[in-house]
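Aim 2 progress update. The chain analyzed this quarter is reproduced below.
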Amino acid sequence: FQNRNDLDIAATVFAQTARRAQVLAQAADGDTSWGTRAQSGIIALFKGVNYEGRDTAYDEVFDMPSSIIVSGTQEYVFTKFTGLPQTTGSLTLTSANNETRTITINTKGMVSY
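Predicted structure tokens:
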């Protein structure tokens, strides 16, 4: 039960973080793009055109159990003003008991999971 709960929470947090990044980008908050990234142990909202070159002062980091495996497209950046994603694809989160949750972001920026 705990694994499934952790997985559901991680999927919801990633989807909500992606939606928030999109809204911030559409508002041109900070006059730049915004994005989200999932990697082992964290989900991050960031300001900038990519995670590596982000402004770390604006990071919002959410813990994710390290037992959850992240695969697929791990980083999405939304373009300033339009809020459209620079990349599209799916992120898959897999729990220790091999249950999965997939979050998809399409060309219009719609987040579904």
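The mean pLDDT is 97. Helices lie at 2-26. These observations will guide the mutagenesis experiments scheduled for the next reporting period.
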